[in-house]
Amino acid sequence: MISEENRLPLSFYEAYDTRTLAQKLLGCELVHNSPEGLTSGIIVETEAYLQDDPACHAYRKRTARTEPMYSAAGTIYVYLIYGMYQCVNIVSREDGCAEAVLIRALQPTEGIELMEMRRRFSRKNLLPGFVPKPVALRELCKGPGKLVQAMGIDRSIHNAQSLDTSSLYIRPQILGHFEIEISKRIGITQGADLLYRYTVKNNRFVSK
DNA sequence: TGTACGATGACCT
DNA sequence: GGTCATCGTACAT
User: Which NCBIfam families does its entry note (predicted)?
Assistant: First the structure.
């Protein structure tokens, strides 16, 4: 089967406030058409980051790192975390308003072998004697750092690009009927009680 | 110069 | 299941 591009237009990202967009993105397909091959997965877990939210990178000061967050809806924001992993966000709202949706987990669809290879060999596999082990399907994109590795997303390539023109883009909703579960965001202390996390209920590819 | 923040894998139980 | 090690970024001192 040949998969068509079927890229969502920027009007999709402009149409909703950030928390609504985070929910509308569930069931959509994140696609990376990379030189090594095409990989994709259904978005099953997102988190919203708002301007008046202490967990948001743009909560305090406008810096070089967070500059893409201030761009138009549909801009890609990739940041480095723990000095070793990266997380991918979809910028929402209008120019000058720094809000975004963090993509936290995918249900793999296309290019599963390529995703498995990327995950297996992007580990600390340069140490002598380290033998990379196969990565289970369920583990491929189960977490924001993991899905970025599996999809071959890279800050130096994708950060500040537009989903309208990048090799990374999103296809419309393809998941069958599902319920959205709302919960607290994972792994943060600032704004920890805000219910800005959205998951596909009972989906086994959700991170937790 | 120091410190808070935060995702993952290795290792252990 | 839990504990530990890893380090770029932002910001206070």
Answer: 3mg (TIGR00567)
